[in-house]
Design goal:
16% of the residues lie in helices and 36% in strands. By secondary structure, it is α/β, with parallel strands linked by helices. It is globular.
């Protein structure tokens, strides 16, 4: 979800472009075919932190929320087989990305890896001085009022 107190206007956020590698597609198909607990859930991409090198991301299965942005995922045959969710905050910063599935057993590392193709844009701590790099807020928050 979005950070506490941040209400990004989903109508003002461009729809992100996500590419999934063959490994990621294969693993998602395998998971969805064999794990009945995932039925009715969506794959979610989420900004989980920020460091000097840019954002860090999490990937997991969750329910849909009203302000989520849904992005279709197509298999190698070109058929849509699922949707990926992002909250508006994540979608604003993750406009061009790729998702891979890594199995590096030698280093005890396995899972989905998100690469933000614009990551360098958000490195360091002074990038927020540029208004184009701050997400558009919902009108009620931008005006200084909050919903009760």
């Amino acid at each position: 979800m979005t950070p506490t107190g941040t209400i990004v206007d989903p109508k003002k956020v461009s729809k992100p472009v996500i590419e999934l590698t063959a490994n990621a597609l294969s693993q998602l198909e395998l998971l969805l075919e064999n794990d009945f607990t995932l039925k009715g859930l969506y794959l979610r991409l989420l900004i989980s932190g920020k460091g000097c090198d840019g954002f860090t991301y999490s990937v997991g299965f969750t329910e849909w929320h009203q302000d989520d942005i849904k992005l279709p995922v197509f298999n190698e045959k070109g058929d849509q087989f699922m949707e990926v969710l992002m909250d508006p905050f994540t979608a604003f910063y993750l406009q061009k990305s790729s998702i891979d599935y890594v199995q590096d057993f030698a280093n005890n590392n396995e899972g989905f890896v998100v690469t933000n193709l614009n990551q360098k844009t958000f490195a360091g701590k002074f990038w927020r001085a540029d208004d184009t790099k701050v997400p558009p807020l919902a009108n009620d928050l931008a005006a200084g009022t909050t919903k009760s």
